[in-house]
Amino acid sequence: MAKLIMQKLGKLRGSIGNVVFYQLNGETVMRRKPGPRKTKPTPRQLYTRKAFNLGQLFLKPLIKELNFTFSEFIRGPKRGFHFALSTLLKTAISNRQGKPVLDPILVQISSGELDPLTDASLEKIGETKFRLSWNANTWIGTPREGDRLYLLVYCPDEKLFFAIREGAFRKNELQEFDIPWLERVSSKTYCYAAFYKKVLKGIRFSDSVCLGIGE
Q1: What does the pLDDT read at residue 74?
Q2: InterPro entries from the xrefs (predicted)?
């Protein structure tokens, strides 16, 4: 059955058989209608879809931050979020009896060649206040005193998060911060941290680490 509508200025929209006509940027474009799916998805395909949706659900509230922390890898239409999702699917999801399970502790919110935090520890020093400490190790290897701390605190069940983009320098070995929602929610909160430095063509990060869980 054919159905075509002639709009003003001679523009066409509608369909004939399996061809669809529509307007795009002032021009008439045609495309083939998608046909019905001929085969059922395999168990592997179903698992992959579920894992992909699980990863998207976890990372979606963090899109703006991930576009910052993975900015070094942005190419063409892909944003930092896409690289974060790809990394999550490889490192943070396991197959448990055919069901994808995400472990937030294994999620990386940044990736790169800088030296990560060494001997990091997270200490609760108040009702909502925490102290993060680490070993600078700037006299060994490649760590630099001027590397800045990036901190992301995230409660995925409640979709609550905040980020510190300009934290302490690596040489300071200390960063204190508050998690304001701890007194009013019972869901787990995850703390991720990494170092970064500004370079000529952007920002370069270390791999992130999950420092601890607050409840």
Answers
A1: 78
A2: DUF6266
